[in-house]
Input
Amino acid sequence: MSLRPALGAAALLLLAALPVLPAAADPAESVTVDPTGTIAADGTVTLSGTYRCMAGTGPVFVSSSVSQSTREIHYGIGGTKAVCDGAEHRWQNAGKPSTDALKAGAAQVDATVMELRPQGLLPLPHFHATHTQDITLTAS
Output
């Protein structure tokens, strides 16, 4: 067995043994989702909201996903680099799912503020805040 597959297997075992991290470590940290998003004629979805997070030691991002008609299928809608300085900031993500599954109407958005914290050899996720919001996608 070569070294590369052995290291990959060891990394997977390490990740599988990690506990699930709490959704928000600090009650002063938050993420919101605006009640309305847009969907363009070409299928591009734009979502937005606000976030607040405290200082981090690694890169931090606001990610979002949208689901419609079934909660089992989520479509990732972009990611935005976050500034964690304790102040409230706006975020906006745009993306085009690979299918034409999304249409104007009711939808549900999951937004997450996540940091990649350096932990030994691997950066590990630390969740600053998460939020799920029912929204309306409007044609733009």
In short: The beta strands are 30-31, 36-39, 45-52, 60-67, 75-81, 89-95, 105-119, 122-139. The two ends are 54 Å apart (CA to CA). The helical segments are 3-17.
